[in-house]
C-alpha cells in the first residue's frame, strides 16, 4: 500500500483527491492548519520548518501531493507577504522536509496563468508569479537532492459541491433564481475541467512517479473544454432548460484579463484524457 501526503486537503480539489486516493488503496495523510480535518490521518501545521520535518519523518510518504496555495485574482499591498508565505515559503519548507526524510516524489500544482497564449512564461497576476517562483526553485532540489517532480498546470475547474464562487456556480445560481447578471463582453475563452478529470490527472501523476526508476522532471497541462464566456452562458442555459438573463458589457474586463489561455498542445500527461462532459455534468450540479 503506497503512502500519500496531501497538502491543501481541505480545499475543493484536495478534498476530492484524498477520497480518490483512499478508494484506490493509498494510505492517505494530510497537513492541516484549521480545525476541519479531512477524512484521513491529519497532521497539524504550526508554520515552522521543524514541524514539517517531524511530519515527513513520521509519515515518510511515497508521494507528496502539493495542492495548498493562496489564490488571489488581484492583490492588495498587505497581501504580498501572505502570498509569498503560502506559495513560496511553505512549499520550499515542504520539499526541504521531504529530502531530509528521504522522500523524493512530488506532484506539484501549478496554474495555466503562469503562461501567455503562446506558452511563454508571463504570469498574469502575483498569484501566478509566486507559483512560477516556487517552480524556479525545484531544479536545485532535483539536481542536488534527487527530487522527482511532476507539475500539473490547471485551468478552471468545476464540479458538484464546489463552495467556490466561480463562473459555473454563478451561472447555475442565476439560472435557478432568475437573477440578471452584469458581465463582461464575454469574448474571453475559458478552459473548464471537471473535478473527476482533475483528480484522475493527480492519480496518474502519482502512479507515474511510483513507476519510474529514474527521477522525473515533467510538466503537464490539465485541459478540459474550451469556449467563450458568451457560449458558456448559452450552454448552461440550454443544459438546464432555464435561459440566463445576462447583460454582456455591463461590467468591464478585469485588468490583465486572459482572453486566450495557453494551448496545451502535446503537453498532456500520457494516458490521461478528459472524460467528463460539461453538458452531462451540469444538471446534477444545479441543486447542489
TrEMBL record:
Classification via InterPro entries: Epimerase_deHydtase, Lipid_A_modif_metabolic_enz, NAD(P)-bd_dom_sf
The species this protein was found in: Sphingomonas yabuuchiae
Pfam families: Epimerase
Matching Gene3D superfamilies: NAD(P)-binding Rossmann-like Domain
Taxonomic placement: Bacteria, Pseudomonadati, Pseudomonadota, Alphaproteobacteria, Sphingomonadales
Name of the protein described by the UniProt record: NAD-dependent epimerase/dehydratase domain-containing protein
Domain NAD-dependent epimerase/dehydratase: 4-208
Amino acid at each position: 500500500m503506497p503512502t500519500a501526503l496531501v497538502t491543501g486537503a481541505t480545499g475543493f480539489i484536495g478534498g476530492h483527491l484524498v477520497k480518490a486516493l483512499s478508494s484506490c488503496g493509498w494510505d492517505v495523510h494530510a497537513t492541516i492548519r484549521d480545525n476541519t480535518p479531512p477524512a484521513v490521518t491529519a497532521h497539524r501545521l504550526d508554520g515552522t520548518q521543524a514541524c514539517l520535518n517531524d511530519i515527513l519523518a513520521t509519515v515518510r510518504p511515497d508521494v507528496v501531493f502539493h495542492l495548498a496555495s493562496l489564490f488571489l485574482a488581484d492583490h492588495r499591498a498587505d497581501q504580498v507577504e501572505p502570498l509569498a508565505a503560502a506559495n513560496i515559503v511553505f512549499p520550499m519548507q515542504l520539499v526541504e522536509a521531504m529530502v531530509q526524510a528521504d522522500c523524493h516524489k512530488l506532484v506539484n500544482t501549478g496554474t495555466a496563468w503562469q503562461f501567455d497564449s503562446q506558452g511563454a512564461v508571463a504570469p498574469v497576476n502575483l498569484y501566478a508569479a509566486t507559483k512560477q517562483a516556487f517552480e524556479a526553485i525545484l531544479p536545485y532540489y532535483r539536481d542536488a537532492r534527487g527530487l522527482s517532480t511532476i507539475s500539473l498546470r490547471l485551468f478552471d475547474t468545476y464540479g458538484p459541491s464546489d463552495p467556490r464562487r466561480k463562473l459555473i456556480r454563478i451561472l447555475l445560481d442565476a439560472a435557478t433564481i432568475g437573477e440578471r447578471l452584469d458581465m463582461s463582453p464575454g469574448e474571453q475563452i475559458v478552459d473548464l475541467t471537471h473535478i473527476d478529470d482533475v483528480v484522475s490527472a493527480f492519480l496518474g501523476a502519482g502512479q507515474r512517479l511510483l513507476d519510474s526508476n529514474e527521477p522525473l522532471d515533467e510538466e503537464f497541462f490539465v485541459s478540459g473544454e474550451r469556449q467563450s464566456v458568451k457560449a458558456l452562458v448559452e450552454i448552461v442555459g440550454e443544459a438546464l432548460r432555464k435561459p440566463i438573463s445576462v447583460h454582456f458589457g455591463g461590467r468591464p474586463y478585469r485588468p490583465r484579463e486572459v482572453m486566450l489561455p495557453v494551448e496545451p498542445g502535446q503537453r498532456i500527461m500520457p494516458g490521461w484524457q478528459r472524460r467528463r462532459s460539461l453538458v452531462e455534468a451540469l444538471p446534477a450540479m444545479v441543486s447542489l
